[in-house]
Amino acid sequence: MKRPAFANWLSDTNDITQTFLSAGQISGLINMAGGLPDPSTWPVSDLSDLAAAAVAQHPHEALAYAPIEGLPVLRDLIAQRFSVHGMRLTRENVLITTGGMQALDLIGKVLLEPGSLIAAQSPAYLGALDAWRPRQPIYRPMRLEANDFDPVTALTGVQFAYTVPNFSNPSGRLVSLAERQALVEAAHVTGTWLVEDDPYGTLYYDSAPLPRMLTLSAQRDEGLYDGPVIYMGTLSKELAPGLRIGWVVAAPNMITTLVTAKQGSDMSTSGLSQRIAHDSFASGLTDHVLPNILSLYRARRDALCAAMKAHLDDLFDWQVPSGGMFVWATARDASMNTDHLLREALFQGVCITPSSVFDPEGQNRRSIRINFTLNDPDKLAEGIRRLTVAARATIAK
Ligand code: PMP
């Protein structure tokens, strides 16, 4: 490990977000900061066969500008895949987006103006905060686990509510069935849009998935879905992020509004990627790779938590997440500043994400997000060993 190189690089960067986003480029550093899938999970040869077949057999779909709302075959397939438990969706309920990130961006474009209120699960996903920052919204944090949390009060008077119910980024928290039901009920009562951002919905390691809020909402009415949930999915975590395929499932009028915004954004999502996404679902490839992803990540989650128990137990509190990609740890010592910890950690050759970036006010300085999907168990253990040295050094200063 070349410590002077880390130190030189540190002095060149001041912005905390830039610090951890670009830290992965430093050689020898153990990067536990990002939310990246392990590249070994990508079915490279199957995807290259699908890409070649898409161009050869469907050149118009793959190579022309695609329809703004997405290829009809893919919209139909998503509608069918999400039509569970008596719920009925058609392609009018579906918009294909350029990753889940574009869905967040479009929501901001169509629903926010300066000073708009957002009720956001706290701590909140950095990408969403970044996407909405240009609109200068005001956040009303939602702490779903708090005893006095009242969903109707939380959703009253806001433009929309934002949640990541499955293994939230960054907290790794699973929103319970009762909490989902209460949020859906509140969205119907108040008429407030409820954004359900769900990149980790297939990554359950210990139990069967809970019902989506989209499904709970759709069960309340018969016929085509026309309710308040705006559901967002993506292929980034269950197939490959470079495809940049995401989707929104929502009421047809919301889809139409988002289509107009997408037209002024990128015209269309890559037809080639959409065709590959369609064929991956239709051929069973997406379902086929999932068990391997689950067993790999489950073992890594266990290795990380075992290393944390061995080294960090007296310094941090955390819950073992039952899915997703992250452990959220909070320092026992209230004076811990995890922005400072990040600098010490980089000096030791490990990168984690400090909680300040997940707080719209940048105030929360006591927690960290640790990713467990990118590194093998030995690297995770070494990363925690380095982090422990860094945490003790931070407290000593
Ligand atoms: N929402 C959340 C909560 C995420 O964690 C991510 C990925 N980090 C996204 C949306 C966007 O993912 P993508 O654009 O790769 O689909």
Domains, number:
2
Q: Describe the largest sheet.
A: 7 strands, mixed
Bound molecules: 4'-deoxy-4'-aminopyridoxal-5'-phosphate
Give the total of beta strands: 13
By CATH, the architecture of the largest domain is named 3-Layer(aba) Sandwich
Describe this structure as you would to a colleague.
With 397 residues, this protein is α/β, with parallel strands linked by helices. The protein has two domains: 8-43 and 288-396, Aspartate Aminotransferase, domain 1 (Alpha-Beta Complex); 44-286, 3-Layer(aba) Sandwich (Aspartate Aminotransferase, domain 2). The protein is built from 15 helices and 13 strands. It has helices spanning 3-12, 16-22, 44-57, 59-63, 72-82, 99-111, 126-132, 151-155, 177-190, 213-218, 252-263, 271-282, 285-311, 338-348, 377-396, and strands at 30-31, 94-98, 117-121, 138-142, 160-163, 193-197, 229-234, 245-249, 316-318, 326-331, 350-351, 353-354, 367-371. It has a seven-stranded mixed sheet, sandwiched between helices. It has a four-stranded antiparallel sheet with strand order 9-10-13-12, with helices on one face. Strands 1-11 form a two-stranded parallel sheet. α9 (177-190) links the parallel β5 and β6. α1 (3-12) packs antiparallel against α14 (338-348), α6 (99-111) packs across α11 and α13 (285-311) crosses α15. It is globular and about 60 Å long. The protein binds 4'-deoxy-4'-aminopyridoxal-5'-phosphate. Keywords: Aminotransferase, Pyridoxal phosphate, Transferase. This is 2-aminoadipate transaminase. Its cofactor is pyridoxal 5'-phosphate. Residues 56-386 form the Aminotransferase class I/classII large domain. GO terms for molecular function: pyridoxal phosphate binding; transaminase activity.
